[in-house]
Design a protein that fits this description.
two-stranded antiparallel sheet; alpha+beta; five-stranded antiparallel sheet; single chain; 9 strands
């Protein structure tokens, strides 16, 4: 089986023909993968005329139920982009959706094309625009302000649908099934945190469009200033509790203490001086939105547990021979479970 991360001649040709038909590039094209490639796959397509387009496609099957739906992702990005046109400086910046294709139209899987946005993605190293501690502080708070703006989008007026009431436990229940045994019981290593999440689940703090993977590594920065230029990777977006996003941002944020789980390692640049600690991010969000942080420990624990579940599911796929070798071994899962156990006692006034 060919590696979809490394597009072959047939894939390159099909994408070139499709994009040229939409007058987005001129053939021949070059195609290369960008991003970490552990979820939906992203290609940068460059035409003979030097125009650039970004294409998203799912990984090879099987995929978790409800995951990797790139056509749904395209609809959400298009809705957020339409809102950005009306909301001026308070908008959430996203690429524009340029073309959409069903499975079999271009590739053997669905895909969509979106506009190319110039700018760096910050993971383990810092661009020149974040050379000073003040730059890093400014970016961190702009990131939180962007998240707050996302949660203010009037999702119900943009054609988006969801069931926000009860969303917290539904998300936990849906994910738990990915690793449960035939009787529905969690693996032994998950059981304690899993039971704690059920016992302490708060009522939803509100209803919003939730990104569900909002972290520094999933945004593009402006090439000339410490601010967010585009929010990427909307494949998990849903209508739910906005504090789920804040909990995930905190779980993924390394901060001055250095990385403690694999997602923090993917964004270890946030350990540099000037980046605030996770508690300061939460406080800034609360000051901006008026949200209560009373149950914040639950949301951060949910994020770490959710990552443990997804990594365990992916580890099992790899062991079956149809997954990504990045997920091999149990160390990453154990790190998330350790972080989940610790986060039960952080940000906490509800225990």
């Amino acid at each position: 089986m060919s590696d979809p991360m490394q597009p072959d001649a047939a894939t390159t040709g099909a994408l070139g023909t499709w994009l040229a038909r939409h007058d987005l590039v001129s053939e021949p094209v070059t195609v290369r993968p960008i991003g970490d490639g552990h979820a939906n796959i992203t290609y940068l397509v460059t035409g003979a005329d030097s125009r650039r387009v970004v294409v998203r496609r799912p990984p090879p099957p099987p995929t978790p139920p409800g995951a990797n739906d790139v056509l749904r992702e395209a609809r959400i990005i298009a809705a957020v982009h339409a809102h950005a046109d009306d909301d001026g400086p308070n908008a959430v910046p996203v690429p524009g959706v340029l073309a959409v294709a069903e499975a079999g139209d271009v590739l053997d899987v669905p895909c969509f094309a979106m506009s190319y946005v110039a700018g760096p993605v910050v993971t383990t190293t810092l661009p020149d625009t974040l050379a000073t501690a003040d730059d890093r502080t400014a970016l961190a708070f702009d990131l939180v302000d962007t998240l707050a703006a996302l949660h203010r989008i009037p999702w119900d007026s943009l054609g988006l649908r969801g069931r926000p009431q009860g969303a917290n436990l539904r998300q936990r229940d849906r994910l738990a099934m990915l690793v449960a045994d035939q009787d529905g019981a969690p693996p032994a290593a998950f059981a304690d945190v899993d039971a704690w999440l059920v016992r302490h689940a708060p009522a939803e703090s509100g209803a919003a469009l939730v990104h569900n993977d909002f972290r520094l590594g999933n945004v593009l920065l402006a090439p000339d200033a410490p601010r967010v230029a585009a929010v990427l990777d909307w494949e998990l977006a849903a209508i739910g509790d906005p504090l789920v996003d804040l909990g995930y941002l905190i779980a993924a944020w390394s901060g001055p203490g250095g990385p403690r789980n694999p997602v923090q390692e993917l964004g270890s640049a946030t350990s540099a001086a000037g980046f605030p600690d996770p508690a300061m991010l939460a406080t800034h969000y609360a000051e901006t939105t008026g949200a209560s942080l009373q149950s914040m420990s639950w949301y951060v624990t949910l994020a770490n547990w959710k990552l443990a579940v997804l990594y365990e599911y992916s580890r099992r796929r790899y062991e079956r021979g149809d997954g990504d070798p990045y997920y091999a071994g149990t160390d990453k899962v154990a790190a998330f479970l350790e972080a989940a156990d610790k986060s039960r006692h952080d940000f906490s006034s509800d225990r």
